Every structure is written in structure tokens, then in C-alpha cells.
Amino acid sequence: MVAKHVINFEPVDIEMEVDEDEVILDAAFRQGIHLMHGCREGQCSACKSYVLDGEIQMDRYSTFACNDAEADEGYVLLCRSHAYSDCTIELLNFDEDELLGGIPIQDVMTRIAAIEPMTRDIVSLRLAATEPATYDFKPGQYADLTIPGTDESRSFSMATTQSTPGQVEFLIKKYPGGRFSALLDGDLSVGDEIKMTGPYGSFTLKEGHVLPVVCIGGGAGMAPILSLLRHLNETESTRPVRFYYGARTADDLFYVEQIMALGQGLRDFEFVVCLSETMPEDPSAYPFAAEAGNVTDVVARREEALNKAEVYLCGPPPMVDAAMEFLEVHGVPQDQVFHDSFTSPVTGD
Ligand SMILES: Cc1cc2nc3c(=O)[nH]c(=O)nc-3n(C[C@H](O)[C@H](O)[C@H](O)COP(=O)(O)OP(=O)(O)OC[C@H]3O[C@@H](n4cnc5c(N)ncnc54)[C@H](O)[C@@H]3O)c2cc1C
Ligand code: FES
Q1: Angle, nearest 10°, between helix axes 295-302 and 317-329?
Q2: Which end of the chain has fewer surrounding CB within 10 Å, N or C?
């Protein structure tokens, strides 16, 4: 029989049980406790916490998420941590509303409703929930999709909202040889079944917050931002919203009309496209602002009061890492920054 231990979380004074063979983050989900998390793969540091007392050992993780000096001091990644005694753990980041009020994790069987190319390497995948027929999540969250025929999964952010409860859209970048994404090149078809588990993630709009929203995304990082924009539009939010989207060339843009239409329903919205490789000859012909440069340079040029905004940052890990550094240098308080780095289990160190 697997040994069990008791974990006490400070400063929230919540207690739970954990089996030695499960990681603490999963044990918390199982018991309805939603701790702060991002990748759930030991790569992003969102779940980093401090062990006040007890014996914990971690599975393999990235030293970018928790360096050796931090690990020696007692910091752990809860998505990688197994308890070998009763423990007291200090949570460094937590959202009081989410902790005991998060949406329960659901296992949902789905069928592919549509697969549609958006650009040369981004595909829209629409899934229809079949068993159960609905799927509950918050805008900005993600789900794990099982790679058909295996028990491995990959994480993908929902681009839609609860306005279509049984239909979920994902925007997926295709990698040559990618265990999941390459299947979208003809191996998966409309009607095929895919198991979906979720929702996960803390990239959500916080109830009652009023600060301007600055969204920064690149590539498939469009997905959760689209979900946030759709939600802001559907709820007739009055918050000022800026969306900076990084792409290489104008050919990599997609959903531009939808984004502009969503923006029209907001009181103060601007869509700024940041093109890192080639600028079109006449950028003024576009209905949005187009600027040359990578997304962090453009944000630096245009945003004077980032420290008075909430920043939602999402996309490929190098872009997210560069933007996180940039936001720190510009004095944006950590609790005003929400990010999802699209790490892959294969590329982590
Ligand atoms: C919280 C979260 C949300 C995510 N949301 C999305 C999303 O909405 N859309 C989306 O497209 N992806 C998203 N991802 C990434 C996704 O989960 C997969 O990691 C990605 O699709 C690659 O999976 P794969 O099975 O196709 O490739 P794998 O078989 O895992 O990798 C195959 C090869 O592809 C290349 N590769 C894979 N990932 C990367 C990378 N990030 N950078 C550079 N090369 C890489 C590498 O060469 C790797 O060896 C998210 C990840 C996380 C953690
Ligand atoms: S390192 Fe634990 S959730 Fe990302």
C-alpha cells in the first residue's frame, strides 16, 4: 500500500493528504484545491513554493524554473514534488478565489468537428464534447489532449469561451515530427475521438479587477488571448485593452477581422501587429497598427505606464522569457503579470 502524508499549506491554513507516488499539485487538484500552476512539467516556475518543514523530493525539472541554489535553500516545484513525510509548505503565489473555488478537472471524450489551416504552420482544431456533452472552463485556461493511441498528452489553450459550451477551439502550431501537432497534417480527421482533460492554468481574468489589460502574444499564443478578448467582449468590459501580436511576416497573421470586430465591442481597444522579419510596403493600408521589430521592442516603444496595467503574456518560451525580463526591468509588479509559456515536454532541459 502506498504511504500517505499530510500537507499543511501556509499562509492559507489548508490541509490535505498526499500519496507518496503522486505529485503534490495533482493531489491538490484531486481534493479540489487549485494551487497556482502553469506548465505542470517543471519548466515554468509558476508552482514554486517553499518547504518550511518535512521531506520532499522532486522528479526531473528544468533548472530555469528552480535553480540549484534555490533548491538547496528549500524551494520546490509542486508539480514535480513527492512528499516522504508530513510537510508544511509556504505558498509564494496563490489566488484566494481560485484556491477552493476553481473549476473541477473534467475528463471529456470529444470528436473532431473541424481541422482548418490558418497559416503555413498554425491549424485551428475544433472539438465537440460527446461524453459528457459540455466542458466547463474559464477564458484563458488550457486542456490536456491525449495523443491518440497513447497515454501521453500535450497541453493546448482554449481559444473560445463558455458561449459555445460543447465546442472548443484550439490553435496549434505544427512542428515537423511533433508527436501531437504533426498528426494534424492528415493523420487526424473530422469525427476522430480525442480525450480531453482540464481545465488547467491561471492565465485568467480576475473578478473585479479594473486596470487596463495589455496582452502580448506570439504564434499560437493567439489562442488564450482570443479567449480573453472574446470574454471581455461578451461581458461588455469597460477596461482599456491593448493586444500586441508578434509574427514574422504579414503572411503569418490570421483572425485579424475577428479581432478587430471583438475590439469594436470594447470601449478602448488597439491591436498592434509586431513583424520581426518583413514589413509590408504600405502598413497604413491595414485596419490595425503594424510595427517593425520583435514584440518586446514594440511594447517598450508604445507603452509608457505598463506598471499600471495587467499584462497577459503567452506564446513560445523564448518570447515569454524575454518579455518577463523586460517587464521586471520596467517595474511591473509580479502580481500584475500572468503568463503561459508554451513549453514542450521534449524540449525541456
Ligand atoms: C500551458 C501550455 C499551453 C500550451 N498551449 C498551446 C497552444 O495553445 N497551442 C500550441 O500550438 N501549443 C501549445 N503548447 C505547446 C504544446 O503543448 C506542445 O508542447 C507542442 O504542440 C509540441 O508538441 P508535439 O507533440 O507536437 O511535439 P513534440 O513531439 O513534443 O516535440 C517534437 C519536436 O518539436 C519541436 N518543438 C516542440 N515544441 C517546441 C517549442 N516550444 N519550441 C521549439 N521547438 C519545439 C522540437 O524540435 C521537438 O523535439 C502549450 C504548452 C503549455 C505548457
Ligand atoms: S514548473 Fe510547476 S507548473 Fe510550471
Answers
A1: 30
A2: N
Q: Per residue in 247-280, is it b (16+ CB within 10 Å) or e — as a string?
A: beebebbbbeeebeebbeebeebebbbbbbeeee
**CATH code linked to domain 213-341:** 3.40.50.80
Closest CA to 46 of 218, 200, 211, 214: 200
Using an 8 Å Cβ cutoff, are 60 and 77 in contact? no
Provide the grid cell at 34: 487549485
Which atom of ligand 1 lies nearest, measured to the CA of 41? 53
Residue with cell 482548418: 116
For the 104-200 domain, the top CATH level (class) is mainly beta
- 222-234 vs 256-264: helix crossing angle, rounded to 10: 30
Taking the domain 4-100, which CATH number applies? 3.10.20.30
Q: Which helix (H) or strand (E) holds 170?
A: strand 167-173
Tell me, using a 6 A CB cutoff, whether residue 180 lines ligand 1: yes
Give the number of other Cβ atoms within 10 Å of residue 348's Cβ. 17
In angstroms, what is the span from residue 341 Cα to ligand 2's centroid? 10
pTM greater than 0.85? yes
pLDDT at 284 (0 to 100): 78
- Separation of CA 200 from chain center: 8
Q: Is 39 in the pocket of ligand 1 (CB under 6 A)?
A: yes
Q: What is the pLDDT of residues 21-67, one digit of tens each?
A: 999 999 999 998 999 999 999 998 999 999 999 999 999 999 989 99
The model's pLDDT over 69-114, given as tens digits with 9 standing for 90+, comes to 999 999 999 999 999 999 999 999 888 878 888 899 999 999 999 9
**β-strand partners of 116:** 124
Q: What is the model's pLDDT at position 148?
A: 94
- Enclosing H/E stretch for 10: strand 4-10
Q: In the numeric block, which cell numbers belong to residue 112?
A: 473532431
CATH 3.40.50.80 range(s) for the chain read 213-341
Looking at all shown ligands, the one closest to residue 61's CA atom is: 2
Residue to substitute in 26, 36, 41 for testing ligand 2 pocket (most ligand atoms within 8 angstroms of CB): 41
